[in-house]
Structures are given as C-alpha cells and as structure tokens.
Amino acid sequence: MSISFIKNLEFEYGKVSKLSPLISRVVCNNPSPFTFYGTGTYLIGQSDLIIIDPGPINESHLNSLIIAIDGLNVSHILITHPHADHSPLATKLSGITGAKIWGKSDLKPHKPMANETEEGDDFGFIPDYEINDGQIIQANEFEIECIATPGHTSGHFCFGLAQENALFSGDHIMGWSTSVILPPDGNMNQYISSLEKIKARDFKTLYPTHGAPIPNPHEFINSYISHRLERESQIIECLKNHISKISDMVPILYANVDKRLWPAAARSIHAHLIRLVENKIVQSNDANNLSAHFELN
C-alpha cells in the first residue's frame, strides 16, 4: 500500500499561521532531509498558551515565537521527544516566559554514524515535570492529553487536544515522510503498536512537528503500517536470497532514496531486523550490532 505523502506546506518562516480556532504554528528555518521545511512549533490557545516543540537553538525562531506570543501568558511548554530539532530552545523560552517544561527525558545512547542525521539526540534535556501516559494538562480554554507513543524514541509522546479532536503527533506520524526508527532508543515493535494505538483513537486531524496537517488519519496510519510490513517482507526476501548484512540490503531496498538518508535507512532496517528477532522469525548471534549477520529461523 503506497503512502499518499503531503509534500505541500503553506507557510512563511517566522510568521504565525492560524490553522484552527485554537491552533497556530511558527516554522523554524532549519530545513534538512530529516526536518522537511523545518520544525513547526505549535501555539495552542487564545488567551493562555501552551507551546509544543519550541525547536532547536535558533535566535531568529526564538524572536519569532516571542512576537507570536505577543505578551500572552504561556502556561506550559510540551516536548514530544528530546531531539535537537524539537527540545533545545525550551530552556530559553522557559526563562523568558516563566512556563515550565513538560516531557520525558529518557534516551538510550547510540554511537552515531557519519552524516547519520541532523536532528540528533538532546541528552541535555531535563524537563521540569516528567509526563505520563494518559495525563491531562489543563488550560483555561482546553485540555491536553499526554499519550505515550514509544517507537521513534523510547519516550516519545503525542498530545491530544480534546476540544478539536486533534493530535500533535511529533515525529510519530508525519505527512511528508515515514518516521526514522533508530535502535537502541527506537524500537520497531513498540512503534507499530503505537501506530495502532493512535489509529484506534480516531482523531480528526494530526499535526506533525514537520510538515502539513494530516486530515485523514485512519487511512494514513493504515498506509504507514502497511509500508512497514511491506519493508519487513522485503527484508525477509533479502534473507531468503542470502543477503545477510544490513550494508548490503540498503542499496537494494533504498535504491531510489537520497543517499544522504542511507545511514538512517540502515538503522531503520536494523530496527526491523531486531523486531524480527524479537518475534522469533530471524536469528543473529549479535542482533544489536549494525554489522551483524542475520538469517531466517
């Protein structure tokens, strides 16, 4: 099943886009193969504001957010996950607005590959408050539900806006691309379970941190899951043909993908193989090693 990616995004860097009665967005000028046009920071509310994913250390973006806030009270700063394109600006924004930072700080370190990713981990991220699955954050005009969606990272959270049946999906579900799953912090079994969890909630609209809103979540998530299972079948086919190393699978499975993304693609294949080992379909003497050999059981 092919994914109907949404490649268009109406925005101007540094300017506020009003997306709904309660939701506005400011896009940071940090485009890359991993961030699309850049980090979309969401401002929720009309009088008191909650801000989701302030973004990277970027003074221009910080100034744009201060202008967008326009003197209103910021009650909370929420972080979907501590990656360098989502969370680092939170500390400065908190210092200016007085709002506390809410998120999950646990990350499992991995040894980065050359040119692996521009997003990177934010190991310095320490929230003022650790959030939990199902936790409700109350504002004057609305409430936000914290929804644990491990997979992209072990502590990834999405945020549900009950008043508009909307979900801020972070990097869990993005309209323009699939999400990168990088072991050991990323886990493919957890990721697919988290996709099913969000699909069951039947949200009206998804607002990813990168890219445009997704207006047909159920169909889109189905295509996301089908894509993952299709990739898994391709990996199994490689193993049937005695292609046992990830480095040999990447040029075959990602022949039409920007080579700058191949290092991350290798880790995505690795995540699938770890899932297949966990599910006893594949075996390896060293499954956590990116250079290991894998074979079918």
Report on the architecture of this protein:
By secondary structure, the protein is α/β, with parallel strands linked by helices. The chain has two domains: 17-225, Metallo-beta-lactamase, Chain A (4-Layer Sandwich); 227-296, Winged helix-like DNA-binding domain superfamily/Winged helix DNA-binding domain (Arc Repressor Mutant, subunit A, Orthogonal Bundle). It has six helices and 14 strands. The protein has a seven-stranded mixed sheet, covered by helices on one side. The radius of gyration is 19 Å and the shape is elongated. The two termini are 27 Å apart. The relative contact order is 0.13.
CATH architecture of the largest domain: 4-Layer Sandwich
Which structural category fits the helices and strands?
alpha/beta
Mean pLDDT: 93
Q: How far is the first residue's CA from the last residue's CA?
A: 27 Å
Domain module tally: 2
Q: How do the SSEs run, as a string of H and E?
A: EEEEHEHEEEEEEHEHHHEE
Quick one: overall form? elongated
Number of strands: 14
How much strand content do the residues show?
Answer: 15-25%
The biggest sheet, with number of strands, parallel, antiparallel or mixed sense and barrel status, is: 7 strands, mixed
CATH class of the largest domain reads Alpha Beta
Q: How many DSSP H or I helices? A: 6
Please state how the strands of the largest beta sheet are arranged side by side.
Answer: 1-2-3-4-5-6-7
Radius of gyration, taken over Cα atoms and rounded to an integer in Å? 19 Å
CATH topology heading of the largest domain: Metallo-beta-lactamase, Chain A
Which regions have little confidence, pLDDT < 50, spanning 5+ residues?
111-118
| CATH superfamily (homologous) name of the largest domain | Ribonuclease Z/Hydroxyacylglutathione hydrolase-like
User: Residue share in helices?
Assistant: 25-40%
